[in-house]
Amino acid sequence: MPRGADRETLLRLGQRMLDTMAHRGPDGQGLWVDEKAGLVLAHRRLAIQDPSDAAAQPMATADGDQVLVFNGEVYNHAEWRGQLARDGCGFGHRGADGRPARSPGDTEALLHALRHWGPDRSCRRTRGMFAWAWLERSQGRLTLARDRLGKKPLVVAEGPWGMAFASQLSALLTLPMVGRRLQPQALDHYLRWGHAPVDHTLVAGVSRVGPGEVQVWEAARRTARRRYWQAEVVATMGARQRLAPGPETTARLEAVLAAAVRDRLIADVPLGAFLSGGIDSALVVALMQEQGDGRTLTYSIGFDDPHCDESPQAAAIAKALGTRHTSWTATGSQARDLLSQLPQITDEPLGDASQLPTTLLALQASASVKVALTGDGGDEAFGGYPRYRQAMGLLGAVSRWPAPLRHLGGLAISQVRPARWQSMADRLPVSMRPTLMASKVDKLQRWLQADGPLQRRLALMQRWDPAGLRGGRSEGGAASGPEADALCGVECDAGLHESERMQLQEMCDTLSADLLAKMDRATMWASMEARSPLLDDRVLALAWRLDPRLKAEGPRSKEILRQLLARRLDPALFDRPKRGFSAPLTRWLGGELKEPVDELLHSLCRHTHGRWSTGAITAAWAAQQSGRSHEVDRLWTLVALEGWRRRWGLELP
Asked: Model pTM?
């Protein structure tokens, strides 16, 4: 916090930050001030374990020397208590009001674990999700840490004035000393991928504590930054210790998944699960039913467009498993109402349009539960996306061609205009006609001309070429700055198949910065918590040891998860092509969302006129409206950016 600030100033700034995060913790708040150190610790509470006042935060040790603020859950804290007791570490602390207290919850266990084991050992011993700040007053040291995959957010602002940290960027933007200047390289990353870098925000001077990272601050200066867990290390070790396909491996995974689900059933509040029509959430719910009371509450959301609506399949799975199921239908008018709140919901731009239905689902479910288990991470851990299968098949074979031959093939394809490719596809019988032919050919052409896994991933997934959007020469998919730091090291990992390298890149970047961020923002906006058993560190360690053929090969993905689910459900209920969790955005963009999206895109064009190639934006919008091209992801990236920019009065470079 600001150097030299008095107690009243510190309290006022802390409360201002807390007010922006009321939805993340509606069950209470606490402020703790050390005027001499110029520090205020503030906490908003969502009471999940031990809802009593004994677990209130900030939480201090009995001698007042160490103070903790903590967001998340430690599922194995009961085991810690026995270990700490055997080591002679007694329990007892003081709450934010200074009165003695004792709590059976995880916060007190974490506080004493940090004092006894230190931050790195405590993080490695933790099964759960967390972002915490631990103050050692006698050492003048503040330590920040984040869980392995970054399920819980933690952002840090620093400058000559000092430092501040929070669970939300918007909380930091309430501080007058935090600037509103955008970081150009981070913005380029956002335009390419639809999300900010995993260890940066879009605002200059505001970074993130990275997934699996510990940071140490002394005298408002960062003195150490280290990783206690790295996905690339786990993946590489797994590739060196492959498990042979067979009943023993399947049984081993089943036991680990059951343990991960069992851990996440710990709660002192009502708990349920989000259930889609897919494999991942169905397997999680099936394991919940086996280990709970057999009366699992499940929730799904559907749409009035049958091409996107998986709610009938979810209902059929719920019926077969015997859960108490509730489903809702999301409408375009609901999406329109939610669009105006998107900058507050996502906190920073997120070009993932499924944020809308995810938030609607969370808002509905929060009326009856405070915790929901999800199937998040199944695609990244077990090779669920079609692009992984493509990398195992034709695209993987093509990537092994000599570079000159690949480049020549890409050049030959580029000589035919995209409209011509689409015209040729339209002449085929309907049963054989590929969808979005022009887009697919364009991706193939870029894949052929790409060198290395990162560039090939860009060929399949890049939304905008930042240089091209600004009217300059295209960068050809090159990455630089923060995204290169975060991703390029993954390319050198030996022993991984092409598809696994792509999985690893997405686990190191997109999973945390997009998918987990989307779920965290949606559920926290509804004042509830999401838990992801498929991303348990034990599950991930085992998943990386699996033969790639058990994950992404041929027409089917996640073969080993299908085997486990088939023991519990009729395969006819889930054995169908992957559709993903997506709203009927194409229809909504031509209907209820057309007017507000049109206004946001025109606002962006006016704001960037003379600096950005606004013709590319208007062309994409026109192509989407005419049905000539599917531009939803690209357009939503800009819509989310402009809504956020206007909310905070930011200037785009």
From this structure: 0.90
